Amino acid sequence: MKSSKKMFAKVLLLLLSTTTSMFAQDKDSDAVKAVLNQYNTAVEKLDITGTEKLFTSDSKLYESGGNEGSYAHYLEHHLAPEMKEFKSFTFSDYKVDVNVSDEYAFSPETYNYTVVVAKDNKEFKRKGIATSVLKKVNGEWKIMISHNSSRK
Fold first, then answer.
1. Of 20, 22, 23, 124, whose CB neighbour count within 10 A is largest?
2. Nearest-angstrom CA–CA distance, 51 and 108
3. Residue in 19, 3, 38, 41 with CA at minimum distance from that of residue 140
4. Residues 71 and 3 sit within 8 Å (Cβ to Cβ)
5. Distance from CA of residue 51 to its chain's centroid?
6. Residue 117 β-bridge partners
């Protein structure tokens, strides 16, 4: 009888730890999605002010075959000047899958986007794909690596 009680206790403990781990993963997954959503929302608003807080200081960005350097470099030399040229930027059909492993999260993303250029209202529609690697830094998820590309 004692051995069956011990076995029951072990099974119960295993179930509780698994449930707790799954809850923690869901919480982290939601937090990762929130960071990615904050970034996408800023791009859609054409206001990327403060987005550097979403990235690690040693972040790496890769876009359509090019190494864009850190987010700070990408922001200054690519994203900010580009945003000034746009009338609008919208995402659609956005899908993300988050896999959390300890202090890292891996997030493949797929989406469509439409850009309207301010000077002539020219519209560009593209299919995009990205892989983001996030790291938990002082309890907050931050984008460490972002690699994206697009096609017509």
1. 124
2. 20
3. 38
4. no
5. 12
6. 86
The structure's pTM equals 0.82
Who contacts 122 (Cβ-Cβ below 8 Å, separation ≥6)? 116
Phi/psi at 119 (5° precision): -70, -30
E strands of the chain, at which residues? 55-63, 66-69, 86-96, 99-101, 104-117, 123-137, 140-151
Burial class (CB in 10 A: 0-12, 13-18, 19+), 30: exposed
Interval 82-120: pLDDT, tens: 999 999 999 999 999 999 999 999 999 999 999 999 999
Which residues on neighbouring strands pair with residue 112, listed in sequence order?
92, 127
- The confidence score (pLDDT) of residue 95 equals 98
Eight-state DSSP code of residue 95 = E
* Each residue's pLDDT tens digit, 5-47: 665 555 444 444 444 444 456 899 999 999 999 999 999 999 9
State both tokens at 63: 């876009």
> How many residues would you count in the chain?
152
